[in-house]
Amino acid sequence: MTTAADAGAAADTGRSGAPVTATPAVTLSSAPDRGEAAERVESLFAESFGYAPDGVWSAPGRVNIIGEHVDYQDGLCLPMAISHRCFAAAARTPTDLVRLRSAQDDQVLEIHAGDLEPGAVDGWPAYVAGVLWALRAHISGATTQGMDIMIDGQVPLGAGLSSSAALECSAAEAIEALLSLGTTPLQRVRAAITAETDFAGASTGGLDQSASVLSRAGHALFLDCRDFSTRAVPWDLASQGLALLITDTRAEHSHVDGEYTARRADSERAAAALGVATLRDADAAQLDTLPASLEDEVVRRRARHAISEIQRVKDFDALLAAGTVRDNVRELGDLLNASHDSLRDDYEVTVPQLDTAVDAARQAGAHGARMTGGGFGGSTIALVEADQAEHVATAIAAAFSERGFTAPEFFLALPSEGAGQDR
């Protein structure tokens, strides 16, 4: 995981006698080597359970390039998988026990497979056990099959990069292989969604799980959340001298809270007021027709964000279809900026750290910048010249230091392959 030097460097004294704070040094780092990470979780499994696993599977985290908080309104999104992954070493057992361990947490789970039901499991194990529970519809004669699973999550926690989806989808790949279920990738996506919403009790629209399973290296994933149809969109920034800088603001991030649920409810009220099933079916002109009886400007602004964000995804996709990222970098950057401004002003899901990171990136020369993920903490992305990534990161770190925020962490995102078997 990316580390940044202490942004609160000791002050020096300039010629004027005024304190001068040293410019924070930053480090841009990448994910652990995939092969080495697979070997590590395999060794951890053997140490914990006393025998070798049947295999190792993994799934990536994601960043959403554009199309935020519209997945649960049948919207359009453009996520990409990142190189940070969650790894799962697993094996079938001759018992009916499901045993779960993690390299990142001391919590362990041992439960009879037949006892899996919503409410029976808490914490991170719920996201794994929930997948097995959700996949029961595809299991014939193996509903009480036991298994051992060791998790090693390399997706930064709390950064808004979908560590939970990576966890679910790595488990789904392992369970599919261990039980030879014959499920399709889309069925595993739906099982992961069900695990998070119905078993773990979190709210998700399915963008994260789709990106984790269905993404292709060197591409973004155009996702239609109405029917879960997808297509790969070329997004090879490296070959064009560009980069996507991720800033983990280290502001606490959580989806399982009242704020996320409230935004979803607001958008549903807006759709009902407009007389449409979801805001995917509305357009900007309809914003003026919201019933005055609502007397709720908040709902109007929630609708404005969703409707305009869906249009921004369409515009972003059209630009990529018309030429390369380099050909249209200014227009693409403008769309990223407009997305963040809408999330800040109309959807109100940003926090000071997110806004500070975005503002500093823009001022330092980024083509465009926005928060990514559910908000209320987490990460931002900035489309930058590859040779300017460190400069932009340094500017963000300096802005955080000036505001007294915890030093952010930085890494460059590579559009990576979706879930699969590693060993």
TrEMBL record:
Residues 1-14 have a biased composition (Low complexity). It comes from the Bacteria. InterPro entries: Galactokinase, Galactokinase_CS, GalKase_N, GHMP_kinase_C_dom, GHMP_kinase_C_sf, GHMP_kinase_N_dom, GHMP_knse_ATP-bd_CS, Mevalonate/galactokinase. Its EC number is 2.7.1.6. Residues 325-401 form the GHMP kinase C-terminal domain. Residues 1-34 are annotated as: Disordered. One of its GO terms (molecular function) is galactokinase activity. Residues 127-215 form the GHMP kinase N-terminal domain. Residues 44-92 form the Galactokinase N-terminal domain. Signal peptide: none annotated. Keywords: ATP-binding, Carbohydrate metabolism, Galactose metabolism, Kinase, Nucleotide-binding, Transferase. Belongs to the GHMP kinase family. GalK subfamily. This is Galactokinase. It comes from Brachybacterium tyrofermentans. The gene is galK.
